[in-house]
Amino acid sequence: MAKPVTINIAALNKQINVPTGLFINNEFVPSVDSQELIHAVNPATEEVICSVVAASPKDIDLAVASARKAFQTTWGKNVTGFERSKLIHKLADLIERDAQELAELESLNNGKPMKIARDFDIGDSVQCLRYYAGWADKIIGQTIEVDNKTKLAFTRHEPIGVCGQIIPWNYPINMWAWKVAPALAVGCTIVMKPSELCPLTALKLSELVKEAGFPPGVVNTVPSLGPVGGAALAAHPDVDKVAFTGSTLTGRKVMEAAAKSNLKKVSLELGGKSPHLVFESADLDQAANWAALGICYNSGQDCTAGSRVYVQESVYDKFVELLVSKVKELVIGDGLDDKSGGGPVVSKSQYDRVWGYIEAGKQEGAKPILGGIKRAGKGYYVDPTIFTEIRPDMKIVKEEIFGPVLSVGRFSTEDEAISLANDTTYGLGAGLHSNDANQCMRVSSALEAGTVWVNQYNILNNNVPFGGKKQSGIGRELGSYALEEYTSVKAVHWNFGEKLDWPL
């Protein structure tokens, strides 16, 4: 058994016990062949919180074998939807019970404000689990007319099998729920690889999986370095499906490995460079609020971050003034402080990446009208930075930054706005603000994105599908559409009356 550690949170005058082993077959175990550790760091202080076991390829093999055994014996087609639903509901109840402690741990390891982790990330994750618990006993096929006198056909939507799930560090609990809930609802088993930057809450959630009563092997958690554990899952010959959320670059590698191994099913939720259009008829005060949320929420570490805002010329100056005033009101600080509306970025490498883009923006001639100055002291803090006087060829306009860095441009006509918005290799999200209903319909239809927000931004619902176009990925999460990613449709042809004459 791998021993848990006790984490002291001085700011809250409390302690949290955290498992540090690999969660395989409902037990926390050490690696079978490696002494390598993953060091979880607090981005607000730059201090190591604790260290957890890093899974090797052989550990991945054990986790997959555990998931396969469970799929064939105690899960998969061997339990009813009613039983699956009951257990998923129980897991949701336990997460809700422990929401405060999970939020504290999330804030400590990820940096995001504790209140946001608790009230938004975890609250939404509980709802996600309950939503899919409701689907578990409603997985149905079709009866298809072939020949009423002699034959019929029907379809079964069967669980696809063992699923490798690779989640990112920006929403460690939320992304866990998005992946786990639909897979469990249809009867799949799971090998989960959390990000090496934020592994702690996935391990803590694994304790709750066991407490909820899921059979051993249904959910396995294997913290590992991406090129080790992630690569092993993507290429594993006994994994039936891999779901990945992360960068487009890594998504390509996952898809390639899946194709070269057993041609497993793949769903990818990848990067974005999402546009946000503000038309002259919009409620500018509200549009500024949503634009501020679009780039500042989660410190800009969001695949749908509205990192390109284009404003109609007639209202450009007024809108930019409003936007700057809104962003200035946000408090960026330690996530354990209730005054903070945003925290540090997740790691030193991410901090350096974001600052590299800020410097590139300056060098290429963009004008920083807010931010762009480094803080002194500890912590990977990046204050929101707004650039104007941008060009389409600038790095800050073309490439995903994954930090609170906003490019603001202008347009004169609706056609120009649409052209600017769609001038990207990505297609995850897009937003528009207008009080002209016809314009809202025209523009939302023309925007090349999997999700379009009208007079709001970045708000998702568990019953509405989410996913990308172009290089932002394939497949869908959330809603009933996500169930299709974890099921295989079997057609059964039943002959009850036709006699075959032989030979032909």
The gross shape turns out to be globular
**Domains (count):** 2
Spatial strand sequence of the major β-sheet: 16-17-18-15-14-19-20
- Overall radius of gyration: 24 Å
Work out the helicity level. Answer: 25-40%
**Main sheet characteristics:** 7 strands, mixed
Span between termini: 65 Å
The CATH architecture of the largest domain comes to 3-Layer(aba) Sandwich
CATH superfamily of the largest domain: Aldehyde Dehydrogenase, Chain A, domain 1
Mean pLDDT: 97
GO molecular function, one term: aldehyde dehydrogenase [NAD(P)+] activity
Family: Belongs to the aldehyde dehydrogenase family.
InterPro entries: Ald_DH/histidinol_DH, Ald_DH_C, Ald_DH_CS_GLU, Ald_DH_N, Aldehyde_DH_dom
Protein name: Aldehyde dehydrogenase
Concise synopsis of the structure shown:
By secondary structure, the chain is an alpha/beta fold.
What this model shows, in words?
There is one protein chain. This protein is α/β, with parallel strands linked by helices and 504 residues long. The chain folds into 2 domains: 289 residues, Aldehyde Dehydrogenase, Chain A, domain 1; 180 residues, Aldehyde Dehydrogenase, Chain A, domain 2. 37% of the residues lie in helices and 22% in strands. The protein contains 15 helices and 22 strands. Strands 16-17-18-15-14-19-20 form a 7-stranded mixed beta sheet, with helices on both faces. It has a 6-stranded mixed beta sheet with strand order 11-10-9-12-13-21, sandwiched between helices. The protein has a 3-stranded antiparallel beta sheet with strand order 7-8-22, with no helix packed on it. A hairpin with a 4-residue loop joins strand 5 and strand 6. The protein starts with a strand and ends in a 9-residue tail after the last strand. The relative contact order is 0.13.
